[in-house]
Amino acid sequence: MDPNSSQRASVTVADVARKAGVSKATAARVLGGYGTVSDRVRDAVTVAARALDYRPNELARSMTTGRSGTIGVVVGDIENPFFSLAVRGITDIARQAGFTVILINSGEDVSAEKAAIRTLVAKRVDGLIVSPAKESDVEHLREAARSGRPLALLDRGSEAFEVDTVIADDRHAAAGITRQLIELGHRRIAYITACDTPDRVFHTPNDINTGSVRRRVEGFLDTCREAGLPAMERWVYMGAVTPEQTRQIAKRMLEGKNRPTAVIASDSVIGLEIFKTSRLIGLAIPQELSLISFHDADWTAVTSPPVTVVRQPVYQLGETAAKLLVERLNGNDTAPRKVVLRTEVVERASVARLLED
Amino acid sequence: MDPNSSQRASVTVADVARKAGVSKATAARVLGGYGTVSDRVRDAVTVAARALDYRPNELARSMTTGRSGTIGVVVGDIENPFFSLAVRGITDIARQAGFTVILINSGEDVSAEKAAIRTLVAKRVDGLIVSPAKESDVEHLREAARSGRPLALLDRGSEAFEVDTVIADDRHAAAGITRQLIELGHRRIAYITACDTPDRVFHTPNDINTGSVRRRVEGFLDTCREAGLPAMERWVYMGAVTPEQTRQIAKRMLEGKNRPTAVIASDSVIGLEIFKTSRLIGLAIPQELSLISFHDADWTAVTSPPVTVVRQPVYQLGETAAKLLVERLNGNDTAPRKVVLRTEVVERASVARLLED
DNA sequence: ATTATGTATGAGACCGGTCTCTTTTCGATT
DNA sequence: AATCGAAAAGAGACCGGTCTCATACATAAT
């Protein structure tokens, strides 16, 4: 009833204009900060706006300008420290550039990813950063890019898809630690990942959908082959999706007769489970089992022994993806760029020379 | 030039209507899924939409409906595992209820929080979930709530502000572990938190802006007082904002002559630094120093010794906040609710009876 | 004094949907 | 065949901004 009840029905430029005794167009010029206005009128409008507690409607603004000031981010799982750190990098840069971030988890599921992208496009995000679940299945990404919305890929690229991409030098890192393990005398080296195949058995790297992991496995296998260790395919363990599943796989793997003497964990969540399991079944690290994990998670430094890891520049991964995207948003129209960030092996104490054979 | 170039200028209902040979209103009915349409027309419109690759503009839809299908989330730092897990809970419920999430980090800074909320209101989010940096400074939240947008507070409430709130029973948890330490003979018990005061010294719980931490410190002090330990205020350490600062504080604290025999860490990031520092300066846990940390972070189970923690239902905290909000969004108009979730002490091996005194 | 130049303001279309109100169509009823 | 009522379709206003274009007025140039 009371028109002053401020509640309901937000205040619009028209309301402010009426109160200030000017036209809607003029009030809009002041409020929107464009065009030319006299100081007198500017003050009048500003006062009126304050009095009415005017709040601009960004939605309406986006309608005409065509820019929403929003970027959409699709990651596998924000709960994973890898992604939460990368997202931090993205949001920092985005905020700096005046954008807000809409975040959607895909759960590493392609159909969820498709739905997420549809939603984001419907909401008219200005650009997209995606960590694609399957690098072979990118038609929806291609399409989003075709719609004129800049796109940047995070941590996982696609060879067949030319678009701004930021990844770590996973192949190189995997090759390095593999070589190191071989030089220390290891021959039975396992690689364990969350990725999975329909039949749960690894045949070739092409079975692996996640780009970063595929590159690592390639590095692992190639290095083994060069060192005269063929057919290491059977040492690639898949399906470590949840901690529970990982524990089961680890148990079967480590209790077997022909158990590996070294394990490479594809991320820190898996690394943690391997560590727990080896302790559980009484396998001493590093005397009886060497362990190297990807991702320098905080806990890896405080275990006994502390674990050797491949440190990825996760925050920078996110930051860089956001920077590339913002450049596009600012009109950069050059060819797609692939940025590869360097990793670093942090030597701790979970790796040892193999004594007997 | 080529009108078929699909690129630029997105396809609108009007375009679809023209192609299908019906009015804009009718096409909108089909595309928007409302009103009544004949099967024949529905098919025609659907076919036309597909042919033109029509993508609804959610922005335009939001304009008229007044609902954006978005909820705004403001947390201290998504990089902190506590928040990333809570956010996961929020996004899961939000997605289920058909909402997307706009995420903004406040960095525990009130002015950033204010800016974030202004942005979110401008973007016309349907509701807000905020983890307020200062529970004393909530005028901006109150205002956001007054604008008719439902609001739920996460992990931190405000006594003076009646609004849906989800917290853990921090006071109870702190009292419990304090009592336990006292019973084990500890008298010099330190509490260390990231919260800070201008003069970096703790005087009274009212100095603490973060609701959850204030309640814990109150529980700590009250229990000490009841047990005949007065003036424990000097054992509250503040300003452990970054790992570096925490390390410095921990060093000074643990190397002092009159060092504490037990430490309560207010979160897992701090707990990790205490653990590292005590190892660095050669203080054996638990023989020479007992440690209890809030937040059951993954690493706490794998250290030697594993550390005793207060397990908070973090995911549920986020989930519940989102549920309360969604209920409001669906029209629930009852009095504000305060939900307190129970914590649980996970006994591990970082706490021991104090031998000599 | 008259015309040119530029600045300040107003009027109204527009963005892409939704929604109300009116008109047309069609099947059922008597 | 005439009448009625509901279903289907159309016309056009509306949401809250931006933006183009026209107009009014002031100042400067001739």
TrEMBL record, chains A, B:
Keyword Transmembrane applies: no
Domain of life: Bacteria
Keyword Secreted recorded: no
Coiled coil (residue ranges): none
One Pfam family named in its UniProt record: LacI
Residues in HTH lacI-type domain copies: 11-65
Protein's name in the database: LacI family DNA-binding transcriptional regulator
Species for this entry: Rhizobium mesosinicum
